[in-house]
Design goal:
15% strand; 8 helices; 5 strands; Nucleotidyltransferase, domain 5; alpha/beta; 45% helix
Amino acid sequence: MLVKKFEWICGVDEAGRGPLAGPVFAACVVLDPDYKIAGLADSKKLSEKKRDDLTLIIKTRSIAWAIAFASVEEIDQLNILQASLLAMKRAVESLSFVPNKVLVDGNRSPCLDFPTETIIGGDNLVPEISAASILAKTARDAEMLRLHHCFPNYGFDQHKGYPTKGHISALQKHGPSVVHRRSFSPVKKLVERMIDKL
């Protein structure tokens, strides 16, 4: 089937900038203009079940989609903003074709070789970005569930690495794991205190 010019619009978003542990994920989605997916919205405004249901529809009905991440080591080395942009870049560049335009949630975009536009609040305004937001969120949540089985002391299955009271308490009790972001202030301060006690 021939695709008209500028029909390949790619939405991009990330998930996991705020947590103290785990990778940051990004996703990109090229929706099929002939198939409207009902219920697309910012992933943070949807229930876990709704996100899971929409993830299956997005992956099945989209023209293309991709998910990528930047590791904890890359986050600590580059900073969280640059690591998020790197994850976005990896997601878009893993598509099997070049989109006509890339729409990125927020006010910063990865360095790409094709037309890119940033849209503040895009995950609420642009269906392609909403879809990307959902894929990034569900992929990261799945990874944090996997990490919970590797590091059960921290409750990653509950808070997904975000700085809840329970997470901070577990950090203070057990110290940081290898998947904690040591460049983030609560973890960094804890490591410094541990070093001072040596």
